[in-house]
Amino acid sequence: MLKTDEFLDRMKRLQGRLKQTGLQAFLVTAQDSIYYLTGVTYVPLERPFFILVRPAGEAALLAPALDREHLAGAPNVGEVHSYWDYPSPPGKGWPECLRALLEGIGCLGIEPSLPQEIAAQLDEFHPQVRGLVEELRLVKSQAEVDMLRQAAYYADLGMQKIFAASYAGVSEIEIFSQARSVQMQIIKETEYDALNTSLLTAAWPARLGTQPHGIPRLDDRLEAGPHIGLSFMRVNGYGAECERTFFVTPPTSQMQEMFAVMSEARRRAFDLVRPGAACAEI
């Protein structure tokens, strides 16, 4: 798991970006952004959460009263404010509490993902959409690289379990169930974060080969043709995926030829990958 210093450094870097942009404050609202800056996990449901970051000083948190104690433990949050859930008494809901928190701010940065319901309350603060947290996330620390490697390890493990469970006629529900054993291993081997871990093992049958965003039926069975194995793992906040084309019956000669063409195209692409290479070149 990431250490406290990691989150403290992220907040300092965000404050540095605020100084460069000239914003008086930045309102963090996305669940992933709040996790990135604090390491605190939660499920927002219909209740918004806010972190107000200024160029200097501690950040301020505004959260539902039910979650105040939990989020107050964040390593880089100073003031903690709370609001009443709906239906709140007059003056105690999140819109009133948020406007009070923002009082005196004339140039506010907001995230690109900010819901319109919240944006409608911010006109008087002259909001500017800035993807500051997204920009920070583009550069990974060594600790993050280690977390990504860990997620990739379990994504590979999920794919191995898909292969081991597959046979001609295997049902989709059997493939979906393989994620359970991966979850048990993650619980045993890591500091398991239940709210920040989600696992999926699946196999798209041949009939959906040209519809990767289609959804297989639970009663689908894998027979002849190329199937797509999917292992999507978010492990303790960091995600990785593994996808493979596989067969449960011998592939035809045409399928083998098409697979060889794809493999050669991938080999050529990998030969062109290097630091600074433009995607258009590849």
Describe the structure concisely for a colleague:
This protein has 282 residues and is an alpha/beta fold. It has helices at residues 4-21, 31-38, 68-71, 94-101, 116-119, 132-137, 142-165, 172-176, 178-189, 253-272, and strands at 25-28, 50-53, 59-64, 77-83, 108-110, 128-129, 198-204, 227-235, 238-246. Strands 4-3-2-1-5-6 form a six-stranded mixed beta sheet. A three-stranded antiparallel beta sheet has the order 7-8-9.
Major β-sheet, in short? 6 strands, mixed
If helices are DSSP runs of H or I spanning 4 or more residues, what is the number of helices?
10
Could you give the distance between the termini?
35 Å
**Count of distinct structural domains:** 3
Rg for CA atoms: 23 Å
CATH architecture of the largest domain: 3-Layer(aba) Sandwich
How does this model look, in words?
- The protein is of the alpha/beta class and 282 residues long.
- It has three domains: 4-137, Creatine Amidinohydrolase, Chain A, domain 1; 142-251, Creatine Amidinohydrolase (Alpha-Beta Complex); 252-282.
- The chain contains ten helices and nine strands.
- Strands 4-3-2-1-5-6 form a six-stranded mixed β-sheet. The chain has a three-stranded antiparallel β-sheet with strand order 7-8-9.
- α7 packs antiparallel against α9.
Descriptive labels:
282 residues, alpha/beta, Creatine Amidinohydrolase, Chain A, domain 1, Creatine Amidinohydrolase, 3 domains, three-stranded antiparallel β-sheet, 10 helices, 39% helix
